[in-house]
Amino acid sequence: MAFDFKQRFGKKSWGAIASMVVLFGSLTFLLVDHLHWQRYYGPSQEALSQAEAAAQLDQDANDRYEQLVEQQTTKSLRFERRERVLGIIALVAAGAFVLFLRHPAPAKPALPHTLADCMPKRGDEEALPTAPVPETVPTSSPPPVDLEPVAEIVQQEGGEAHRLIPLLHAVQAEYRYLPQPVLDELCKQTDITPAQLAGVASFYTKFRTKPCGKHLVQLCRGTACHVAGADRVLEEMRRGLGIAPGQDTDPNGQATVETVGCLGCCSLAPAVQVDENILANVKVEDLPEIIDHCQDKPKKRSGYLPFRKPTASHSLDATSGELLLESDTARPRVITGDWEVMAADTLEEYERQGGFAALAKCLSQLTPDEVIDEVDHSGLRGRGGGGFPAAQKWRLVGLQSGSKYVIANGDEGDPGAFMDRSIMESAPARVLEGMSIAAFAVGATRGIVYVRNEYPLAVRRMRETVQRMREKGYLGDSILGSRFSLDIDVVEGAGAFICGEETALIQSVMGRRGIPHRRPPFPAESGLWARPTLVNNVETLACVPWILRHGSAQFATFGTEGSKGTKVFSLAGKVRHGGLVEAPMGTTIRELVEYYGRGVPAGRQFKAVQIGGPSGGCLPAALADTPIDYEALRELGAIMGSGGLVVLDDTDCMVDVARYFLEFTQHESCGHCTFCRIGTRKLLDLLEKLCAGKGSRRDLKEIESLAHSVSQGSLCGLGKTAPNPVLTTLKYFKDEYEAHLEGRCPAGRCKALIAYRVTQDCVGCTLCAQHCPVAAIEPTPYRQHWIDTDLCTCCDACRTTCPEKAIETVSTAKPPRIAAPPNLRKQPQLV
């Protein structure tokens, strides 16, 4: 069928044709002129060369040479002028042609302003309305934001640029988000520029620029919660509240649903925080009660209790209390030894347990070099993940001159880890005492404790303990009558995993975007405000008082040759007894999982353990006898990290686990270097392709090659270790990748590759139909049920609620439509 300009473009067709003719004409002239110039240019250059050679031999030929030069210059200028004019004509014609081809934007129907506008005109009663009439029409602009609290906030927090993050926290606490008029007023009353403010507010995930609902619901996306089904809970929560795709608040403004990297209560997975309360072990069938609460329906929910952190590192029950208590007291405990008998909100009990004796000993009996030597002899290594010898870092900072800083890194961002949270909440004074000893050893006079925004109780207890220490003379000028002075501030983070890296953390403390920088220079040489800065993890600092009180030799008796002392591990995931475990370095993975954690639940099989968070790796159960120390794990392709262990069973898909960690690191990447910013995105796309059953063998090779490139080319530790979960799963679980290439998910985890089916064991109790959020199961009492695969969202609510275990998953690339049983099939009607 011929293309009809006039039919498609109406009156603009002649303009389009004319501009097209001009365009082709100018291009034709350009081509002809260019060919003519090529024919002329060769002979003229040859004649000019001959004339130049003759002019050098004969003076009379010089005039001929000058004449030829003038002629060729004139022709060149004319040619360039013609090309320029024809080129401009061609560009204008092309632009006009494009404009004529564009479809005119459809006119937007005017909204009715009055009720009379909605009524049909006389004679048009039969006509249908061309556009729906909105239910409500805004008649006025939103009410203005009250700017009076801004001055009080600035007066309380300070107006310097490095106070930007505390200022934004205060603004968000007042307004529940960051209104633009308030931000403009903040720039007027402080030294902060709009560019600085916009850059910081957009970098940290905890800052909101859109209004928040009446209730704030935060779903944990940590590793333990992920393997426990947090994704299904999130999907059904959004569906139940009616939150549209791309939004985070329901249409009525009642609830805002957010995801957080980790709430730090991994033994309660899946965990959901509603306002200030944390709900444990939330399942899809629990969501109706939570949704009713968020919508302020007058229905009292059962089981809604505020989260209360246990004070011991093990939970005791009536069936195995003696055995757990015996194991709890038999092993060495440097960090958690007196948590059961010590309250965290007072200093008196800590003093009765020997608190601040190590600090007093250092100030009265030891020199800074002797303190560093004692830490060196203990073999203490950094507990934050790197494993760098603590004494070497201290000595390097101590050799520097001028003012110095000490920073306690409490930005525990690894999903599945909650050791630092428990330490700061249960023993804040021990962390601060170790920090004071470190400051004395390196000659620092200022200290900063950097704590995650997701740990409000830890922030509050650290600040309260700092204030009590000032009142009792453990902080301030001339501590305990010595010449040593130190003051400590507590800085609250704003939701950036990258700020766990020490150079990014320092940038955040200075009120900037948390972007790492190249090293050297190291923070020990040039850190906070370009001054020497000692950065240690809070667990590392908490070990120091014990070493100074009991001696380095006693500490060195624990652990292995290369990894001395004890380590606090968080045990979560598919394990019977999750929680904190402090054990000597060198304890095997199997001992942690099967002895302290009591193994996986009945009927399940221990499959793997994920250790080290996003920077770590996945090790199979066959390697469970591996000792947990820095060198042994590094040989297997993993790292200890901060000490988080997530146990996986046979229902966990290792490809999905690798995809989950890539999704986390890609989201948390600061975007500074190309390998991390683009490489992790490409890796995630390939893994999502595999989980959807659309991968190829070429994709597997590309995943492995790209993972090595990202590891070698990234700037900071986040990018260098981001491919570890992918590489370890490829190494130890290659068969699962092969199965996904065939369109199968052996664990039945990937939604695109599974379907749910009711077996003949169904007794017709209708529980599955009652808990199905999308009505994909028709209740048929005392008969075998059937799942409509067209409606099923694979939320897993039916399988988890079935008391007869009569619902199973079928793994297939293209889930077939499962036929209904005979009792549910439509019978033909007789006419």
TrEMBL record:
Keywords: 4Fe-4S, Iron, Iron-sulfur, Membrane, Metal-binding, Transmembrane, Transmembrane helix. The chain crosses the membrane at residues 13-32, 85-101. The keyword Lipoprotein does not apply. Residues 129-139 have a biased composition (Low complexity). InterPro entries: 4Fe4S_Fe-S-bd, 4Fe4S_Fe_S_CS, Nuo51_FMN-bd, Nuo51_FMN-bd_sf, NuoE_dom, NuoE_N, Nuop51_4Fe4S-bd, Nuop51_4Fe4S-bd_sf. CDD domains: TRX_Fd_NuoE. Residues 754-782, 783-812 form the 4Fe-4S ferredoxin-type domain. Residues 124-145 are annotated as: Disordered. The keyword Chaperone does not apply. GO terms for molecular function: 4 iron, 4 sulfur cluster binding; metal ion binding. Pfam families: 2Fe-2S_thioredx (PF01257), Complex1_51K (PF01512), NADH_4Fe-4S (PF10589). Belongs to the complex I 51 kDa subunit family. This is NAD(P)H-dependent oxidoreductase subunit E.
